[in-house]
Amino acid sequence: MIEYFEGVIISLVLWGCAGGWLIAFGFLVRIKLVTPELETFPVPNPTGESLPKVTAIVPARNEAGAIEKCLLSLLAQEGIELSVIAVNDRSDDATGEKMVELSRKNPRLEVIHVKELPKGWLGKNHACHLASTQAKGDWLLFTDGDVSFEPSAVLRALKLAEFHGLGHLAVSPRMITRGRLERAFQATFGILFSLNFNLWRLQTPGSRAYVGLGAFNLVRRSDYEQIGGHRPLAMEVLDDVKLGLLLRRGGVAQGFASGGGLVSVRWQPGFRASLKGLQKNLFAGTEWRWAVVISGSFFLSLSVLAPWVGLLLASGAQNQIWQIPPSWAYYFPALLGGLAPISILGVAVWKMFPAEKPVWFPGLEGLAAPLAVLIFVAALIMSATMATLRGGIFWRETFYPLRELKQGCVRESSYPAHGAPGWAAVYPPQSRE
Predict the structure, then answer these.
(1) What is the per-residue burial (b if ≥16 Cβ within 10 Å, else e) of 268-291?
(2) Residue 56 covered by a domain
(3) Model-level pTM?
(4) How many CB atoms lie within 10 A of CB 50?
(5) Are residues 238 and 260 in the same domain?
């Protein structure tokens, strides 16, 4: 009898893992269906109306290798009146010099140099705040110094936001990667990010969903000022994401779009750099709570390990462990739960990362799904451990004490979701009357 109940419990665990992955797949499909593509969004021809005014804000520290391409791509935007404020945040490389050199040739580019960081601010957040006080556009575009844009990117995003009546639009960039493990890991992070923030429910009034992306946060200036700008985010590590929280919970209609090939970024130069880049983010993503780290690590690990362990235990050679004959109650959910994350990640990689050359098996990185999830878990635990042992984090060569980061954390629970607005999703826009 004891062996029977053990078998039932293991079978339920396997069914739970399989069901969880199937639900996740359904949510991801839903996100795909409701997410517009900038590349396919129609932009009307100018009819004589005044051009919309946008100020792009680009904080940068030690981005000498990418800042020129970023700023030139912004200055080349078409169909809008765009100015750029680039903030050299205490760089000790040639970032500031390159900004100044470009500004001499482009009067629409203004450069601000930050020599010292005021107490109570993170570097990037202070740079965004400082630039926002000098911005003159009706819309603000917050982006990073390593992002590049095609000429129609900002106009299409602006028109999409105006069409749906949005005050904030976050656009996901195309991630430029080199190795298969790097693509698998970054795709895993993207999947977990999308599921965690309920992106398919941004249009639903009162839902918990919210979003913000450092590569492309387009915000109506009046809405940005209504929430206090970056002041509430002064010591928030996830300033881009939490900006989305403050906006949506503050009554601003919010949307999410795929940039396709119009917005691109080389997030980190390689797999190891990707891991290192998340060291400051992952613990902050739990709002500095070890309970979330432990529970999240356990369930993520269980979801990818249990199906394969179940297949081993259900095999004839291991039958003595359960003392009952293996059956479909073990094989089917174990196989389903094992293959589901592989399929999900394979499709995600295939869609997220364009192949630099023809490949026979696009999305082959999906086979690394269990490994990628476990690496993510290890990165989460490492992020929490390092921050705890150090008593803080290093970000852009600056140390921030953990005590101050916890005090300045913008916690989701402090901003009720009942006032979050929705909006009518009508896409493609030709169908709207």
Answers:
(1) beebeebbeebbbbbbbbbbbbee
(2) yes
(3) 0.90
(4) 7
(5) yes
Q: From CA 374, how far away is CA 260, in angstroms rounded?
A: 28
Residue 125 lies in a domain: yes
Residue 292 has pLDDT above 80, yes or no: yes
What's the CA gap between 240 and 407, in Å, rounded?
18
How many domains, in total, are found in the chain? 2
- Domain residues for 19? 2-27+287-413
The pLDDT confidence band at residue 433, using thresholds 50, 70 and 90, is very low
Residues 102 and 244 in one domain: yes
Whether residue 252 is contained in a domain is answered as yes
Nearest of 257, 254, 258, 256 to residue 422 by alpha carbon: 254
Residue 332 resides in a domain:
yes
Q: How far apart are CA 19 and CA 23, in angstroms?
A: 6
Structure tokens at 219: 């915000």
Return the closest-CA partner of residue 72 out of 108, 113, 124, 114.
Answer: 108
**Rounded CA gap, 107 and 102, in Å?**
9
Give Cβ neighbours of residue 335 (< 8 Å, ≥ 6 apart).
307, 311
